[in-house]
Every structure is written in C-alpha cells, then in structure tokens.
Amino acid sequence: MLNSQNPLYFQTKPYWDFLRIEKQASVHTLTNYQRQLLAASEMFSHAGITSWQDVNAAAVRWMLTQSHKQGLSAKSIGLRLVALRQWFNYLVQQQQIRVNPALGVKAPKASKHLPKNIDAEQVGQLLNSEANEPSDLRDLAMMELMYSSGLRLSELQGLDVGDMDLASREVRVLGKGNKERILPIGSKALQALNAWLAVRPQFNPQNNAVFLNKRGGRLSHRSIQLVMQKWGQKQGLETHLHPHKLRHSFATHMLEASGDLRAVQELLGHSSLSTTQIYTNLDFQHLAQIYDATHPRARRKEEEE
Fold it and tell me: Which residues are catalytic?
C-alpha cells in the first residue's frame, strides 16, 4: 500500500500547483504523475534516500530495475521515468538541483507484438460478396485496394484519381515523411476499382479524391473506419474489422507466401527493416514479381491464360 504521507512525496506538493496552474496539465496527466512519483518516492525511501537532491542516475536506474522486478510493464516503467524527468526538470528550474539525474537514463523497450490479422479464408469471405449499390461498390473497392497494396489508412484516404494508373496496375501513394512509393494493384482490386469509378460520377465529385462521401467530398478517416467495421459485421466476420487489420493481413500473407522480408518492407513503406520484422520471428532472405506470384488476390496466372 502506497503511503501518500511519504516525506519524499510530500516534498512534491508545490509541483502539482505548478502543473495544474502554470502548465494547465489535464487531470489525467496529474493523476498519472502523482501515482508514479508516489511509487518512486516509496522505493527511494526504502533505499534510505530522504531528499530528492540525493537521487542520482544510478538511483534512478535502480528504481526502474526494482519496478521491473515487481512486474511493472515496460510501458508503465516508461511512464514512471517520464514523470521523474518532468519532476526533476521542475527542481532544476527552481534551482533546487543542478542537473536532472533522469535525463541520461533510458526506459526499457516495450516488446513489439505481432499485429492481429485475418487469415486468407476470412479475407475471401469478407471480399467475395455482392456489391451492387454505388456505395457498396465504393466500399468494396476501398477494402480490395487496401488489402491488395497494403496501404495505410492515411494513404487510402488521401488518394486522388490521378495517383492511379489502372492500365499499368499501379498506384502512387505518399507515405510517412512524405515518402512516395509506387505499388502494384492486384487483379481483384483492379476489378473493384473499375466498377467503383464507373459509378463515381453519381456522387457529384467536388474534388479529385478517389473515395467520396455522399456529398461528393473526400471520405474522412473516421468514415472509412466505420465503413469497414460495418462491412465486417454484415459479412459475419467474427473479429472487429478496421483498416490497419487489412494492412497487417496483407503483410502477413505476403510473408507467409514469399518469405521475402525486404520486398514486404518496400511494399509497406517501412523505413526500417526492424519495423517489418514484427510480422515474423524468422530470418528471411525484387518486388513486383514477388507480389504477382504470392498475393492471394493478385495472381494473374488465370487471367493471362
């Protein structure tokens, strides 16, 4: 049980007024910082530290290690360290200490978990459905394209008609850091896009956005999320469907079929290979060829025969 009368914690009392009044910190931030500093105060007190001026970098590292031994997650330990850094910054500003002992201390890295994906059979269940109404044709085209090319939600939402070359089966997207990449479009996505673009004029387009709302404007991020959520429910998908789940499924299925981590990195637009490695624990050893040969909804063999 934490003791709010802890002498070290008592010394932080002026800090809360500073955060609340001068920094206008939210109640949520105040509560989190108070909880973390109270826990840190207890641990330092048990180590015989009675003044914040006596806390050095070694003591901060010791406290984080003890927090880990107590079962605190890496994310929570990181929050504790942030709370300490901000508190020590305040003490430096108040000229109560000369340097911030928590500045050079690194928080433990949170483990990266494999994102949940939908298996290829479920994707087939999701996308092999009747779409006759213009809005259904639009929605199906969005999902086919996202799964076909592994787009981020922001990339899909920001797509303009001129960004697509359907004759060459290519789409140009602007990813994170304004980095442009050109991606292949699978045959199923191509069919869905052609069907949607044929009825798109019925929405009275107000701009060049590929995917429009009923007023002819660009669909918002939230609207796309809701569309996919409702589509998944309508198709009886057991798992909650959202745009990133289709992107994750694209990455997982491509890796399972091709084993080419570097190609999938390029397709996803990841600047670091380590980011792509969250999709696999294996060591995997050319881009459009890999895509055409392995993507569940992009193989051209049957079409070309």
Answer: 152, 176, 244, 247, 270, 279
